[in-house]
Every structure is written in C-alpha cells, then in structure tokens.
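#struct-pred
JK: can someone run the complex with histidyl-adenosine monophosphate? inputs below
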Amino acid sequence: MEHLPGFRDFYPEPLPHQDVWSADARQYLFDKWRDTARRYGFREYDGPPLEPLELFTLKSGAEIVGQLYNFKDKGEREIALRPEMTPTLARMVAAHERNYKKPIKWFAVPQLFRYERQQKGRLREHFQFNADILGETDGAADAELVALLIDTLRAFGLTTQDFVVRLSSRNAWQAYFTQHGGPTGREYDFFQVIDKLERTSPEESQSQLAALGFSLEAVQGFIRSGEPTAELAAILDNLAARGLREFVKVDYHVVRGLAYYTGPVFEAFDVQGEFRAIAGGGRYDNLVKLISGGKAHLPALGFGMGDVVLLELLKARGRLPAFAARVEVVVLIEDEQLRAGSLRLVQTLRDAGRAVEYALTPTRPNKQFKQAQELHANWTVKLVSETVVEVQHLNTRTKRSGPSAAVLHLLAET
Ligand code: HAM
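RT: done, structure tokens with the ligand placed:
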C-alpha cells in the first residue's frame, strides 16, 4: 500500500533509495531552526493540528481556503487540518496575552496540510518553522525578524551566493493603489495579481490589471524603480548595522498571497531562481483583533519557512552533512556466561548518557566487532571476567583494562 500523493515517509539513513525522504535530514533542520530561534530569544509553542474550519475562512484569503483539507467530524463540527500556523497563534495569544510580557517572541515547528497541486517544492504536507513577534509596532521588530530569517539560513552554511531576501511592503502597494484610483475594497484582488505576476503570462496579467483600472506597464515601472519607502529604509539601516544588509534587496514583486498582511512583507529565494520561495512573511497588525472578536488588539509580524524547498536547496548546494548512526559504545559479549554482567555494564553506560549497542542474542565475536566498526562506534567495551573490563578505542586501537566499576573513568581515559 502506498502513501497518499503529496505525503511523505521519512526513513533513517542510510537511505534505501535516492528519492526517499531522510528522517535524519529532517531532524537536522529542526535542530538548526530551534537553535537559531533560541539565539534570538524566541520561546516554543504549539497548537492542535485540527482546528474549527472558521479559523481559516475568517481572514487567510481565498487561495489558502481553496486548499483546505476540511470535513465534518463525527460530532457534526466543520473542521480543517491546519494549512498554516498564524491563525492558531493569533487565537492562542489573544486568549492569554495579559500573562506575557511584550513583545511576545514565539516560534513553532508545525506540520501543515494543503491540498495543492503537487509540483517541485510543493507537497500536500510540510513542516514549517514559524517565528512571530507580537505587541510591537516599531520597524525594529521587522528588522529583528528578517535578521532571524537570514541567520536561520546562514546556520545551514548558506551565503549571499545562495539566497536573497526580497523585501517589500503592502503599504507601498496600498499607496500606489490609492494614488492610481484603484476601486475601493478591491485591494486584495489587486495584491493577488501582483503576487502572481512572475508566474502568469503578461497577457493574462494585463487583462486582470485592466479589469481593476491599472496598466501592466505602469505597475512594472513601479516595481523596476525599487525605491525603498521610509518604512523599508529604516529596516534596511537596522540590518546594515548588523552587517546583514547584503542579504536583502527591495523587490516590489513581493506582496504575499495571504489576505491578512498589512505592512512590510518579505520572501526568501535562492539566488539562481531554481526553486519556489524558501520562506515568506510580514506584518499582520489586524489579525489578532479579528480572531479575538475585538477582545485583544496586538500588532504582529512573522514568517514561515518550509522544510521542502530548504532541503532541495541544501541538497543542490551540497550543504547537507553525512548522517551516521550515533552509537558511541558497543559492548561486546564474547562469553555468554558474562551476559548478565554485560547487561549491567550496558545499563551503567546508558545511565551515564552514552549511546550503547550490543548483540541481543549470542553472536560470533568477530561479527560483533565488525558491527562496532560499521556503526562507527568510538569504543568497544567488554567484560573479560565478572569484575574486569577492557575498553578499546576503535580509531587509535588503544586498549585499557580495569575494574568494571571504573568503566566510565576508563572510557574517558581511552
Ligand atoms: P506561506 O508563504 O504560505 O506563509 O508559507 C511559508 C513557506 O512555507 C513557503 O515559503 C514555503 O517554503 C513553505 N510552503 C508553503 N506551502 C507549501 C507546500 N504546499 N509544500 C511545501 N512547502 C510549502 C505562511 O504560511 C504564513 N502563515 C507565514 C507567516 C507566519 N506569516 C506570518 N507568520
């Protein structure tokens, strides 16, 4: 039986096949995401993978709602698998914001589900690193978040040769829309056309823009000008002070597909333009208010970075490390009379935090030793009598013997 299209099985390395997903690589991503969030002072939260349908139909926008995995549960509730984390975060923060000092800096690594057309970099489930700041209107928060995005990618060894953050603002487009007499209430339709400009034929974009009273040429002229607004210039100066300016360029192609964004927005792309967006986010100052029915009103901003494109990029640039089993010690049981004592030894080593393997059933000594080498263990440890242990370092081949009670000490010395 196969898994569903767009879903993945994750196997431990070494992988049985090139096209199989690696559980070790996934963990590597999660570890780096968590570590970078920690360096920036973000705390981890989580929410339920199933949510009331309404949470997403409220303000995420038509595109994502069209991709929902939604159904009625056995209690006749309309529910959906979460396609993104932001509405859940907004709900959670609104419920308990008084208990937390502002700005709130939280991150999560949820698995998300979208019924999308399957294509390169887009599946029907993915894991997404989310980092959000709530309770701060100043652009310093936007800069902090863009810096976190840059440093997350730098943590994987990626450089300015590999990725760029394209910075833009809904405010800039809103001003353009108003100045050019855009029809009231149609901003989101306009933003949707801009969002898809690079993936739609010029003829189609032209006719969609014309329907809203705009010309493709004028819109492209505005994008080409790339002049940072005062709001964006402040973010760029902040990033320059950190030495991170060269990772960012102003690019008004970016406007973001989701409906709730209100201010600066940004997306990270690979420099060669081979892949879909690595990450995207921006300011959404009205979502908490909307989701809490007006009870809480907190400005907010954040981004999401998926695991799919990031892994494709790291693979393509040779930036993934080799993943090996992380066994440190193999306990050799060459004399079955000593199995009980050996199990005690295994337990002592594991209690001390060591990763330990041994043969579960009687096995030829040379086979046990070969297994230790295949596992790239650092040491073998074996009982030579009830009370005497021998430790061998597998690289240097140094051997030491001593009382079995002193095994941890012997290990540290060998
Ligand atoms: P998004 O742009 O929809 O934003 O997704 C963010 C990232 O998730 C994308 O750049 C991509 O890497 C990854 N991604 C999205 N859909 C898929 C898919 N079907 N398969 C694989 N990867 C995918 C959001 O979701 C916002 N909620 C982010 C955010 C957080 N904004 C503020 N806070």
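RT: quick notes.
Residues 23-39 form the longest helix (17 residues).
The chain has two domains: 10-316, 329-413.
JK: thanks, will look after standup
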